[in-house]
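Q: What does the assembled structure look like for these inputs?
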Amino acid sequence: DAKTTQPTSMDCAEGRAANLPCNHSTISGNEYVYWYRQIHSQGPQYIIHGLKNNETNEMASLIITEDRKSSTLILPHATLRDTAVYYCIVSARGATNKLIFGTGTLLAVQP
Amino acid sequence: GAGVSQSPRYKVTKRGQDVALRCDPISGHVSLYWYRQALGQGPEFLTYFNYEAQQDKSGLPNDRFSAERPEGSISTLTIQRTEQRDSAMYRCASSRRDSANSPLHFGNGTRLTVT
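A:
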């Protein structure tokens, strides 16, 4: 499975866009990019996923580079409740969706 | 409810006792996953099922850990002869299909403390 690299922590001002980067330089053509977040002691929450096209839903946007070696999760208007650990994970298409979590990025939204 | 339900929320047990943790997945979800999470770490995969069949148990740390899903719905994770190092948050997740294009949805977990 492809590994991902994320910054350990990031700050963002409330109301501004939060852009969380992820490197997955060893990703193969059949692997999806997933983003989850975990707020305090709650269970991980699914945010968004994509294969090669950019994706948008009510929570966030996912921008995947053309070579698929990196991606960015965008929270368009961060709020204090978006403070959480954000995990970027790659998952194999057609196989189990067994997700291997790394240590993620702690996003702190500042008032 | 609409989400993944786990019980109990908290379990305190003495070293050497057996414990059973329960997971009730989202209705109709084919796949069910068990994870373990230590404080400050990301969730660690333990095992997963499609319907009642255990597909992958490569993450179970040793033979004291077992899981079953006999009717393809509710699952039980059993830890025999618990040890202090088993203390952690145990999380269950389910997905609609067994596919990399099918997101996992997690429950709020069972906090296990072994004294």
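Chain B has no helices and eleven strands.
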